[in-house]
Amino acid sequence: MDQKLDDNASYGLLDRTFHLTEQHTTVKREILAGLTTFVSMAYILFVNPTILGQAGMDKGAVFTATAISAIIGCALMAFLANYPIAIAPGLGDNAFFTFSVVLGMGIPWEKAMAGVFIASVLFTILSFLKVREIVIDSISKDLKLAMAAGIGIFIAFIGLQGGGLVTASKTSLVEMGSLSVPTTWLTIFGIFVIAILMAKKVPGSIFIGLVSTAILGLVTGLIKMPEHLISLAPSMKPTFGVGIAHLPSIADPEMWAVVLILLLVAFFDTAGTLIGLAQQAGIMKNNKMPRIGQALMADSISMLAGSVMGTTPTATYVESSAGIAVGGRTGLTSLTVGILFVFSMFFSPLLTVVTTQVTAPALIVVGVLMASALREINWDKFEIAMPAFLTIIGMPLTYNISYGMAFGFLTYPILMTVAGRRKEVNYVVWILMVAFALMLYVLNKLPN
């Protein structure tokens, strides 16, 4: 009897905190969604240290910084915004940091990390002043839908690539992957399992598919069984506070170009992802996101914390769409992701089981779900259809969410004006057009 009362009290507390009943969800569904999102994005714990390690940073320290920044971001997103959206260091930013800034421009990683810190401070200030919120609210419904569909196609492309179904080609850029590679069949297996379960409307289809694929990999030997189960988290001493210690180097003019690009890319990657995920989760109300300011502040604070600990900017994760597809609707989903990141710091060997072939089926199926936004775009009006189309195809074809958004914003205000609909274009959109043009110009000037 006492146990039942305790259970009811615990549920009541969670319901009041995350408004579960109001969002027509349950604790079980939210936790399952959090598990699904975590499994889909757990790769960042290994990918981020690998990429930043090529810049000369200590991989162990980056591993711990990655986990802690994700924990902070997910917890803030849960309690401030109550959104089922996870936060962790972004892939695009770490690649830019390593390959363009450190290796391309020859800037030492310590100095470059000072640029990350300055960009994070500016990012937080912009969020506090609600500049980011104003920008997101100014974007038209059609472009928001295009971003959602574009992100869906983009993550499906990531899944196809990670699963080995699509590979690089010297003649046609991409081509069909080889079916003689055994691990590719893990992806194919996972796709069919999830698709069949989804067609039968089985709850938790995506998570069941992920677990089934991982088990098949272990049984067949395609996925190596980890040698250890538990390991202590590495120290952050080699990277902690390095950016702050090298702040005087920010006086170098080339560093301001680095800061500008980091700021713009982080700004629009997060904006595009938030809009796409909000559309998928049904959060948008009258073309606006409730509590958008709190969500952006959670993202900003986690980015600032990450820059101090020694990792590149954090971002809202498109893989959150996997959890949303399972039924995640509140911050309890993102809190679950954060808690799992805590455990991952001590059970990191187990995460090696979650290979790209395991997560690929989830990303592909979620891409199908997010592409449904295409049906609501006003394709009959060319001044809307063209920017929307460029936004959608730009994301997967350039492998960058911000570039896809740039294509849309560089054409939308011009075509709307030519069509005699200039009054429907918010002045902020014109500012965004200039900002994206500047971003593309600066990026074009940087070494490849």
UniProtKB/TrEMBL annotation:
It is a multi-pass membrane protein. Keywords: Cell membrane, Membrane, Transmembrane, Transmembrane helix, Transport. The chain crosses the membrane at residues 31-48, 60-81, 112-131, 143-167, 179-199, 206-223, 255-278, 332-352, 358-377, 389-415, 427-443. GO terms for molecular function: purine nucleobase transmembrane transporter activity. GO terms for cellular component: plasma membrane. It comes from the Bacteria. It is found in: Cell membrane. InterPro entries: Azg-like (IPR045018), Azg-like_bact_archaea (IPR026033), NCS2 (IPR006043). Belongs to the nucleobase:cation symporter-2 (NCS2) (TC 2.A.40) family. Azg-like subfamily. This is Xanthine/uracil/vitamin C permease. It comes from Pediococcus pentosaceus (strain ATCC 25745 / CCUG 21536 / LMG 10740 / 183-1w).
